[in-house]
Amino acid sequence: MSLFPDTHLSDQISSLERSFTIRNLSYSVLF
Prior knowledge:
It is built from 1 helix and no strands. It is mainly alpha-helical.
């Protein structure tokens, strides 16, 4: 039994990944 559900953690990580990817894409377009 884990205190935190894996789904919540993976959701957080995926959202973070998405934001970073979007930021990287915008930067690559700008420069």
